[in-house]
Amino acid sequence: MEVAKDRGKEQASVSEGESRQSVSERERAFERELAMKSRDEAAWSLFQLIVDCARQKDFRKAEALRERLVQLDPMALTEIITSAEIIEEEKTKSRPEDHSKLWAGLYAKLTSSEANALYYSMKERSTLGIEPLFMQGDNNTDLHFLNEGRLIMLWNQGGREVAVRTFRPGDIIGEETFFSSSVCTSSVRTFSHSRCNVLEKDLLSQWRDQFPALEGKLREYCGELRRSSGSFTSSSPDRRSEKRRTVSGQAMLQLLYDSGEPIRPAFKGELLNVSSWGICVAVRILRRQTAQLLLGRKMGFKFMVSSDKDSFKLDQRGRIVAIQPLMLDDYTVHVEFDEKLGEQMVATLENLPEIEEKPCIEQNSLSGTLHIESQIRGTA
């Protein structure tokens, strides 16, 4: 393309002061003149408009115009590539210096385009006074990057709140529920004020095509922060202190209305482990979005646990606190009991023989598919 070749050097030197008209005026002029120009001239004019938008920090408009440039002339490679570089450069320069310094360790792991995708996808949230970020039992799906202030993590232990950890600027809060499907196992609130950048979980699926490595890098950085902070060490309350027994058996599960009435029909699952405070079962769910709808739902269940010497039945109610993928369409559903199992039942659990590994769940071993959408609508 001759125009692109002749102007390749000129493109990089386009500056803010060179624009004699506002972006909106130039866009209107471009629309009027588009039919009169050659494709090369139209591409060059559109490129200049993209640069002006980027320099004026209107990145949404610049990216939309760049998409239009690709459609107008896919062979205008110089303009297409250079405009992308300029947009990324302006995005990088526009990130606040104090923010970039605070999160330098995270941004060092990312490419320039990944860092900009992360920063410009986040929203800002400020809190005043003693305000909760989220509460134990909530279905929080946001990741919070603490920029200013202090936060305290609290865990409800037998009706009494126990302080678990203090967060300071540079800490990330909420990764437990952001990277997996589970309810909050603790509460987080401010001391007096805080300022965070907030990343919504839905963005992970949007990144997978354009930035496939970004989620993994973010998860890795969160893990490094957690290990370096020493959070949830032996000095912290153990939220899974009750011994879990790996057992096998089949469970009948049933969602409940808020009133406690069952939502029919019931469905079957494969029991994986049980403790005095909860159970874990494997069920088949066809869609990931459906699995996430189960979080926080009340559930009733009946099951029989058996060994060489003992067998017993349980009829309990509880709340779904986590959903984890197992394989293919199978998921593990973690249910917390409303009431702790009695001492006699706990003693029976303790007498069951130890099993080194969880029983293998074959794809065809689950005796039904969970059709949950209609039941979820029934609880609304």
What does this protein structure show overall?
Mean pLDDT is 77; it is low at 1-20, 232-239 and 354-374. The protein contains 14 helices and 14 strands. Strands 1, 2, 3, 4, 5 and 7 form a six-stranded antiparallel beta sheet that branches. The protein is an alpha+beta fold and 380 residues long. Helices cover 37% and strands 28% of the residues. The chain folds into three domains: 2-94; 99-229, Jelly Rolls (Sandwich); 245-379, predicted glycosyltransferase like domains (Thrombin, subunit H). α2 (23-33) runs antiparallel to α3 (39-55), α3 (39-55) packs antiparallel against α4 and α4 (59-72) runs antiparallel to α5 (77-94). β12 (298-306) and β13 form a beta hairpin.
